[in-house]
UniProtKB/TrEMBL annotation:
InterPro entries: AB_hydrolase_fold, Dienelactn_hydro, Dienelactone_hydrolase-like. This is Carboxymethylenebutenolidase. It comes from Parvibaculum lavamentivorans (strain DS-1 / DSM 13023 / NCIMB 13966). It comes from the Bacteria. Residues 15-229 form the Dienelactone hydrolase domain. PANTHER family: ALPHA_BETA-HYDROLASES SUPERFAMILY PROTEIN, CARBOXYMETHYLENEBUTENOLIDASE-RELATED. Its EC number is 3.1.1.45. GO terms for molecular function: carboxymethylenebutenolidase activity. Pfam families: DLH. Signal peptide: none annotated. Keywords: Hydrolase.
Length: 231
């Protein structure tokens, strides 16, 4: 397993991505890893490496490239949080979805043909929109923000989507959670798992709200979905 930085050609420019491949010969399925508001940082690179260890070609694109390429910050200082929220405020979600579509197009020839997507926080919303607007073969979103504002997009879902919702998410109020559950309840392609006592980013190792038991459960569910639909 090895990681490298590659170039991804988008509709209106090129940007970088962190690519991790599984060991051994032969082609494997692919997964686009969609960043949080901290850029393509160690947490995201570690996720790519983890997925490569599980047998996937994992690629995490730099979605903040239009604002500032190469963002790599943590959740450990107030200054970094301020920077992250500033980036989040300037970020164009729909252009980000276009960049994810370009990333899928770049990744697919490196794989056995099937490509999924998994995203966290901002990336959780983007994973949902990836299911709505791209040809990803399966998508998973962890504690996605603002999904309740984009429920009309759900009509575009054509492949399996799994959402992990934190019951005590400080960035997703209860009312918003219920809107998402109600809005997607009748869609047979959507599976929602709820973690009643968890706060935002419960699956981010090293984060203030990390909970290993719930993170392991969510990750197991994610891997099983990918095994079913990307294998």
């Amino acid at each position: 397993m090895s990681g490298e930085t590659i170039n991804i050609k988008g509709a209106d420019g090129s940007f970088s991505g962190y690519l991790a491949r599984p060991e051994g010969a032969g082609k494997a399925p692919g997964i686009v890893v969609i960043q949080e508001i901290f850029g393509v940082n160690k947490v995201m690179r570690d996720l790519c490496d983890w997925l490569a260890g599980e047998g996937y070609v994992a690629l995490c694109p730099d979605l903040f490239w239009r604002i500032e390429p190469g963002i790599d910050i943590t959740d450990q200082t107030e200054a970094e949080w301020k920077k992250a929220f500033d980036l989040f405020g300037k970020f164009d979600v729909d252009k980000g979805v276009g960049d994810i579509a370009a990333t899928i197009k770049t990744l697919r020839p490196m794989t056995s043909g099937k490509v999924g997507a998994v995203g966290y926080c901002l990336g959780g919303q983007l994973a949902y929109l990836t299911a709505c607007h791209t040809d990803a073969d399966a998508s998973v979103g962890y504690y996605g923000v603002n999904i309740q504002n984009r429920l009309a997009d759900a009509k575009g879902i054509k492949a399996p989507l799994m959402l992990h919702i934190a019951g005590k998410d400080e960035f997703v109020p209860k009312e918003a959670q219920e809107e998402v559950v109600k809005g997607l309840h009748d869609n047979p392609l959507v599976t929602i798992h709820r973690y009643p006592d968890m706060d935002h980013a419960f699956a981010r190792p090293g984060g203030a709200h990390y909970d290993k038991a719930n993170a392991d459960e969510a990750n197991d569910r994610t891997l099983k979905l990918f095994a079913r639909h990307l294998g």
